[in-house]
Hints:
By secondary structure, chain A is an alpha+beta fold. In chain A, about 30% of the residues lie in helices and about 25% in strands.
Amino acid sequence: MPAPDLGLRKRMAVVFIGTALFMAVLLVRVAYIQFIQGEELAKRALDMRTREVPVEAKRGTIYDRRGRELAVSVNVESVFAIPAQIRDAESTAATVATILGMEKDDVLRRITLPSSFVWIKRKIEEDVARQLKAKKLPGIETTQESKRYYPKGNLASHVLGIAGIDNQGLEGVELFYDTPLGGSKGKIIIEFDARGQEMPQALHRYIAPVDGNDAYLTIDEVVQFIAERELEQAMIRHQAKGGVIIVMDPTTGEILAMAVRPDYDPNNYNDYPVQNRRNIAVVDAFSPGSTFKPITAAAALEEGLVKMSDRFFCGGSIKVPGAVISCWSSNHGSLSFLEVIRHSCNVGFVNVGLRVGKEKFYEYVQAFNLTDKTGIDFPGEATGIMLKPDVMKTVDLAVMSFGQTLTVTPLQLITAVAAIANDGKLMRPHLLKEIRSPEGVVVAEQPPEMLRQVISRETARELKEAMRSVVEEGTGRHAYIEGYTVAGKTGTAQKVVEGRIVRGRYTAMFVGFVPYDNPKLIALAMLDEPEGAYYGGQIAAPLWAAVVRDVLQYLEIPPAPKTSTDLKPSAADPADIQVTVPNVVNLTPAEAMSVAREAGVRVFVEGGGPRILQQTPAAGASVKKDTMVIAFTEGEPGGKEQVTVPDLIGKTMRSVAATLAQVGLQMETEGSGLAIEQDPVPGTQVPSGTIVRVRFSP
Amino acid sequence: MKNRGYPDMAILFCALILLGIGLVMVFSASAVKSMVLYGDRFYYLKRQLAWAAIGIAAMLFSMNFEYRHLKRLAPLILLGGLGLLVIVLIPGIGRAAHGARRWIGVGSLGIQPSEVMKLAFVIFLAASMSAKGKKMRAFTTGVLPYVVLCGVVFALILKQPDLGTAVAIAATAGIMLFAAGASMSHLLLLAMGAVPVLYWAVTSEEYRLRRFLAFLDPWSDLQDTGYHIVQSLYALGSGGPLGVGLGWSRQKFFYLPEQHTDFIFAILGEEFGFLGTSTLILLFFFFAWRGYRVALNAPDVFGSLLACGITTMITLQAVINIAVVTATIPITGIPLPFLSSGGSSLLFTMTGVGILLNISRYTTE
């Protein structure tokens, strides 16, 4: 047999070289994949193998200015499915549907989605979650989420707004301060195999959420409560379509209360018509009517175009180019400008407005911030309709002088009048006092912000004097509060809908401040489309007084020393009537005031505690009507009111919180789930305000 | 005939090293799947160990079985191989898996006739071509009969269907024709003739075409045709230069299909990185060098062609396999010799190595 010849050997060498070349190509290719593309491929591969389960951040609490909770987040469980891990979809769906009270088909559809993560039901009660967890269904898991809870229900609902299911602010302060409140989401990254099972030694990374910060509002819960209570009664009494009460500190622009009707409960906001959620104090404009007159007066006085002693004649109407404008009264006759303001004479104001002229008039309206948003920290603020001087006719100017044909939001109006009360300094209104971290460190503050000096201090003083006479001698008599010097202005505006005056529909208003010379409070009361009586002085002024009277007391603003000024008692001599002192112990200051008013006495709250622990005189004593009952929220040492610790075992965190709040105890929690341990034990007598430690376990 | 000497120890050790790497990788790559499917992490390893033992026995036998006798037996071997290829196509005898009828046998002892054919065809071609001598240069006597025979084998394997093996066998045959001295012009003609056949083979089945094109941009069809190759690249890429470490592959958790068979190279690449992949390529290069060296130094044309054919068959499969796994060429199912889990492939690869070693004992240096 012949050995392979040279030709064959050559060809085999070629085959070998060819093979070697191919291998060299592969070597380069592998190097390219593993060195150059390696990082990117590894990252993509990891992304493919890992799934993220979101971990919600705890949304910050919203407190009132004294640290009382207005909106809190409570821990709840949410159920999700990892479809790939579901064993028996049919039976799983049936079990889950029964426990969660859902349609089986709905559950089945969700757990068979070609997705790595799908919510089944969010934010369920903990006992339901416990039942589900006990079943240990593969692929069905729960995660802790937080749910927004508004412990005070409807109170200040328009200010607070609402937060959605993903803890995102949707309306109100919740929306405006969504970023600081919301914190940032965390996540759990888990590596799964291709069948959706967790791998051994799988990558497990927990990226902790950053909890939201707490917001402290300028709102005072008690002031808010008083405003809501009075507004609610007035709404019923006058069958009004809407109502607004704003209470503000004129020196800082801090809003102490903002009550709006119709209202809603943010815990169940879906049960109410959407329009109930409109904060009409900020987002709707109304014709201000005569409450606008101080602005016209301010412009004229500041420009030196009129003096308080200047005299005007009102014959019941005035002719201006294009129209005859009538006054609301035909027997004003000859009036000083002071009397024009006091009696809210339209003819007098038309005269003054025409003296000011279009340009100057608009200039002041602008300076008072009535053409622009106030800049309040609230989403969706509106501004009214205000004619520009170039399109303003004389008749427009004449009518605008007494507050018709223009519109402003209630907030714009109170802010402008507050500038007069505050010696001409216009402050930006605001709802937020400060933002604090969960540890309580102040991270942001909102100090008072002065926008501009609108009018001089002297002009402001003159106007305040005139507005005081409105209450003491003029149209605002029903706003009188015994012992205080109230200044204000009434307003009754005909409703303007789509540019036309609607007959028979009115907005009644009163805006006023107290004490007149050094105002601590300014408030606005507005009733929209009341039935029956509709004059601002008739229905808004008493509402205003009812609110401010209690707020003054609550804020411990002392009455002015008696002066020689003519003080008119508002009712029959109270000294004749004897009343019985009610029990106010264990009530909140706001509730106490309400109870006291019904009984015909007054309450003076001492201390800043949440509940009244002691009162003097004691309940049952017979006293003269309007006697002051002093209520202490913090008792003397050893004199604390004793309460019985309730049994909390087996309750959910929410129900524990509610139970403890009812008896005036504080809570400190540990763990989550249902209460399994408490300290002190049920039945123990402890001073009110004691901290009860509760341990929870799923 | 001179007395036989020692076999080429380099080839022997190279083959045993590759086999050892294969056993480690089969275990690492298959442990998870074994556990899930059979509740036994060692399921595939045990089988592979058994086949390795059988393979080593076969190698030892063929290493000592004088290769010259194969020349006489060649027609019988070919007929046996062809017979098996026909039988496997008969439903009831041939066993199907993954939509292809590739197996015959009883219980867990299965044999793939196409693997038998790989070796049988090489033996027959070496015997036949070495007998032709100068006639190889003529078209009718030198090329045409092999083309016809190769066509039959190709068609039978394609029928299973197993395009990868069919192509590997045809390519091995082509290279042997070249090595045996067929005219370059004839071979060119043949190559041109193969183009439409390959085109037809690829386009005749819709899935083949899509799979064929998927390697160009596997990310465009991530869920379907690109899935395999993307998972393979993920594995290789995750390995980087040094790998994630033995046993630490993540892609073997059912992401990469065929993780212990056709795509075992990707798991090797994930666990040992470029260090592992380049070492493996170099081992195959070394094997090719030693194999072709045996062919060059063989005492006769039959031995030379046989050594050349066996070396080509093994290294060609390795090159194709690695090229597929690295998305260098379209996807075809071909095992990586020595490494991929699978008894027939290992048995006949080891048998082939044994024959190669036997030839090396007669080298004329």
